[in-house]
């Protein structure tokens, strides 16, 4: 029986090239349609590099990954390098970079990553002490499908996803921002692809910025740095996502995120530093 090929897997496909002085090289392509105004979404780029890290190390889950974004990234052919730093019994650590090819045969470094990877399915675990549970959110079917909204003309990535937003948090589209820098919604794929740890990297940056609910323009918010901690493999079904911003200062903002699965288990956390939108 032929294995089903999902769109996200096609968009993050890799071709192993060679290993030179311990550095793993992969050919790939930054696909169109996973972008904001023609520039690839930061979570999509992180997922692309994260998949290369997992392939190079043989460990499927980026337990923690930090990406610094060095330049905007249109669609095109690219190369990823993964450099092992250390490998232990539980975790391995690497650095990685994605280079975008240009028409003159050169290339530009787009994103540089430091990641620690493991296998959460076999992880030995340890003590837990949760100080709170999943925040409240409207049921999946009561949230609005982002691909059906006008925001899709600006953020083309929503046409690739089945993300849904809580109605009051995406009312900025009709000129009625909530006044609270909060964004709540559900992450899912339209073709039913299961959400694994690589997909959580995409989910961390797959919603409109929470600051769109303040008196700021709904414009491009370029990511400077993004960190994701994957805490568990999600149960089947959509993942509830919560994002908020507390400080917009000197043209920069932070956005903190939490992702919870259908069983109310915390599966990922994120924080990013980004440039504030300008009209």
TrEMBL record:
Positions of the Acyl-CoA thioesterase-like C-terminal domain:
142-275
Please list the residue ranges annotated as the Acyl-CoA thioesterase-like N-terminal HotDog domain. Answer: 31-117
What Pfam families does this protein's entry cite? 4HBT_3, 4HBT_3C
Provide the protein name: Unannotated protein
Source species of the chain = freshwater metagenome
């Amino acid at each position: 029986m032929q294995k089903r090929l999902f769109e996200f897997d096609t968009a993050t496909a890799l071709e192993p090239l060679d290993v030179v002085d311990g550095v793993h090289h992969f050919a790939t392509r930054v696909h169109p349609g996973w972008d904001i105004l023609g520039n690839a979404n930061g979570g999509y780029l992180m997922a692309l590099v994260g998949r290369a890290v997992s392939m190079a190390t043989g460990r499927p889950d980026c337990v923690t990954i930090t990406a610094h974004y060095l330049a905007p990234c249109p669609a095109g052919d690219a190369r990823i390098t993964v450099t092992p730093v250390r490998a232990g019994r539980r975790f391995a650590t690497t650095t990685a970079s994605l280079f975008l090819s240009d028409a003159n045969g050169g290339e530009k470094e787009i994103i540089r990553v430091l990641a620690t990877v493991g296998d959460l399915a076999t992880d030995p675990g340890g003590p837990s002490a949760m100080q709170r549970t999943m925040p409240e959110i409207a049921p999946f079917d009561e949230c609005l499908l982002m691909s059906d909204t006008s925001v899709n003309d600006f953020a083309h990535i929503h046409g690739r996803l089945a993300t849904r937003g809580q109605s009051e948090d995406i009312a900025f589209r009709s000129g009625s921002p909530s006044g609270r820098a909060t964004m709540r919604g559900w992450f899912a794929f339209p073709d039913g692809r299961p959400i694994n740890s690589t997909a959580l990297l995409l989910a961390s940056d797959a919603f409109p910025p929470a600051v769109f609910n303040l008196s700021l323009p709904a414009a491009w918010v370029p990511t400077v740095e993004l960190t994701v901690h994957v805490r568990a493999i999600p149960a089947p079904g959509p993942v509830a996502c919560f994002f908020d911003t507390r400080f917009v200062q000197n043209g920069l903002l932070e956005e903190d995120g939490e992702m919870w699965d259908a069983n109310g288990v915390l599966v990922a956390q994120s924080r990013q530093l980004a440039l504030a939108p300008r009209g």
